[in-house]
């Protein structure tokens, strides 16, 4: 599930006249969209700007091995671009999701190359094993050029349950 308290707000484009008109046909998807298998143009979670985060609460403590991030291809994009795709990503883990002062541990920093495979898997540092974690934070530090929002289509967390 998504820890809404520690996740960036969903992008709301009400400043744009065009967006207000399109709202009759389209509405913003919630963060838990990234946990669903339906990856088609527009079915993503968007947050405002080029920096944001999502915190995923795992069903149990997990010994993490990798994380997969997915976006659509340039060919599938209605605009013909993938500038809203995440670019620089950091992955953090923690044990409990209730404390603001909780210590997070960095497991990796990656670049999602939007021009390559739309589904990219990044191995995480194994130095923390045999520790298992209950929360994963995906911190997007930049995107590929969209000044208004960043879209994440899907995130998969890989590992073994404790």
From TrEMBL:
<protein>
    <submittedName>
        <fullName>SPAG4 protein</fullName>
    </submittedName>
</protein>
<keyword id="KW-1133">Transmembrane helix</keyword>
<keyword id="KW-0812">Transmembrane</keyword>
<dbReference type="InterPro" id="IPR012919">
    <property type="entry name" value="SUN_dom"/>
</dbReference>
<dbReference type="GO" id="GO:0034993">
    <property type="term" value="C:meiotic nuclear membrane microtubule tethering complex"/>
</dbReference>
<feature type="domain" description="SUN">
    <location>
        <begin position="1"/>
        <end position="162"/>
    </location>
</feature>
<dbReference type="GO" id="GO:0043495">
    <property type="term" value="F:protein-membrane adaptor activity"/>
</dbReference>
<dbReference type="GO" id="GO:0005637">
    <property type="term" value="C:nuclear inner membrane"/>
</dbReference>
<dbReference type="InterPro" id="IPR008979">
    <property type="entry name" value="Galactose-bd-like_sf"/>
</dbReference>
<dbReference type="InterPro" id="IPR045119">
    <property type="entry name" value="SUN1-5"/>
</dbReference>
<keyword id="KW-0472">Membrane</keyword>
<dbReference type="Pfam" id="PF07738">
    <property type="entry name" value="Sad1_UNC"/>
</dbReference>
């Amino acid at each position: 599930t998504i820890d809404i308290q520690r996740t960036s707000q969903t992008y709301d484009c009400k400043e744009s006249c065009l967006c207000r008109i399109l709202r009759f046909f389209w509405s913003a998807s919630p963060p838990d969209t990234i946990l669903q298998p339906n990856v088609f143009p527009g079915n993503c979670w968007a947050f405002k700007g080029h920096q944001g985060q999502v915190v995923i609460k795992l069903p149990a403590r997990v010994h993490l091995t990798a994380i997969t991030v997915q976006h659509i291809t340039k060919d599938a994009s209605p605009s013909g671009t993938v500038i809203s795709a995440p670019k620089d990503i950091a992955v953090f883990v923690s044990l409990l999701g209730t404390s603001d002062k909780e210590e997070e541990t960095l497991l990796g920093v990656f670049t999602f190359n939007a021009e390559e495979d739309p589904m990219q898997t990044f191995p995480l540092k194994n130095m923390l094993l045999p520790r298992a974690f209950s929360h994963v934070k995906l911190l997007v530090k930049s995107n590929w050029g969209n000044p208004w929002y960043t879209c994440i289509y899907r995130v998969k967390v890989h590992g073994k349950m404790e």
